[in-house]
Amino acid sequence: MNATAIPMRDVDRQIWASELEDFVPLRLYDVHVHLFRAGLDRSADPESAGRRLAARGFAEAGMALWRAWNAALFPGREVHGTCMGFPFVEADIAGMNAFVVEQVRQDTGSAAVMLVRPGMAPEDVDAFVRRNNVIGLKPYRVYSATGDVVDCRITDFLPEELIEVAEEHRLVVVLHLARRRAAADELNLADLRRLSRRYPHVQWQLAHCARCFIPHFLELAVGPLSELENVWFDTSAVCESDVFDILLRRGPRQRVMFGTDNLPAGVDRGKYIAFGYAWALLTEDNHRFDLSHCQPDLTWVVYESLRGLRRAAERNGLTPAEIEDLFYGNAMRLRGMVGRK
Ligand SMILES: [Zn+2]
């Protein structure tokens, strides 16, 4: 698939031209990218995530497809990124990691992160990291050793014996927090405080603004998290301008990094919306709104995220240099910290 095959609509082109083109810098580094083969989902379920992704055109979501999407979404921009496999519940994890490493070799500006789960032998993870220039580990809550994918704690899905490997190699850990209150959860905060101090050379990249899709959760968490100097935030999939506002106003601006969660979450057509203490992805086919009074098209999640980010950046008076850092420089600084000393 090349860029011309990407299903861009007028609504997307209008939003890019009128709201984003002047904001998004010419050089981007996306710190949250998933590359995968849908067939690496080993689930036998005919409705499995892998089969659904294949049906949507993501059978082979490698470097070529990612580049095609980037060319359509961010015309004229140079894009590199940090790439990891897709954490299917029944993923062939070894196959996924091999795929990502092989794809990343096609782009010298990008880097690979290794999918890990409890039960993997630390020496195997260590060997894979050494051999393949891996810059980080990607655990995920669906692999929690407790079997509870909602209320699990960090070390339930990232055992400390694997964090020790990350400490040894000074790696990034791309962490999607679990638990219903995410970063505002006292146990998560206590765990992050303890782990970031115990493993000071691990850089903790908290995905989705520390999984704060709700501004209030970040209001509670931004103070304690800002004090932890090896804790970073990626902006992927968050669409609430107020979340970015809190992060840029009260958080460590030099540790906030642009991310998309592509493929495919950033190119879902919809928006992550917050209400009460909940959040959900609103899409074209999961609502019953009467939209006859307006133009009813939804746009890409990543465009909604960038709209929110632009408004928060403006409100907080980010300088052009700070905007460059948000999209590129901060991620380069993080990458510069990786590696055995
Ligand atoms: Zn992700």
As for the CATH topology, it is TIM Barrel
List the total number of helices: 13
Radius of gyration: 19 Å
What compounds sit in this structure?
zinc ion
CATH architecture: Alpha-Beta Barrel
**Physical arrangement of strands within the biggest beta sheet:** 1-4-5-6-7-8-9-10
Could you say which structural class the secondary elements and strand pairing correspond to? alpha/beta
Helix coverage percent: 40-55%
* C-alpha end-to-end distance: 41 Å
Q: pLDDT below 50 for ≥5 consecutive residues: which ranges?
A: none
Please provide the count of β strands: 12
| CATH class annotation | Alpha Beta
| Main sheet makeup | 8 strands, parallel
Q: Average pLDDT across residues?
A: 96
Strand content: 15-25%
Structure described in brief:
The protein has 341 residues and is α/β, with parallel strands linked by helices. It has helices at residues 10-20, 49-55, 63-73, 93-104, 122-132, 154-157, 160-169, 186-198, 207-211, 215-226, 241-250, 301-315, 320-337; strands at 27-34, 36-37, 60-61, 78-84, 111-115, 136-138, 172-175, 203-206, 231-234, 256-257, 270-275, 278-283.
Q: Layout of helices and strands, plus pairs?
A:
Blueprint: H1 10-20, E1 27-34, E2 36-37, H2 49-55, E3 60-61, H3 63-73, E4 78-84, H4 93-104, E5 111-115, H5 122-132, E6 136-138, H6 154-157, H7 160-169, E7 172-175, H8 186-198, E8 203-206, H9 207-211, H10 215-226, E9 231-234, H11 241-250, E10 256-257, E11 270-275, E12 278-283, H12 301-315, H13 320-337
Parallel strand pairs: 1-4, 4-5, 5-6, 6-7, 7-8, 8-9, 9-10
Antiparallel strand pairs: 2-3, 11-12
The structure holds zinc ion.
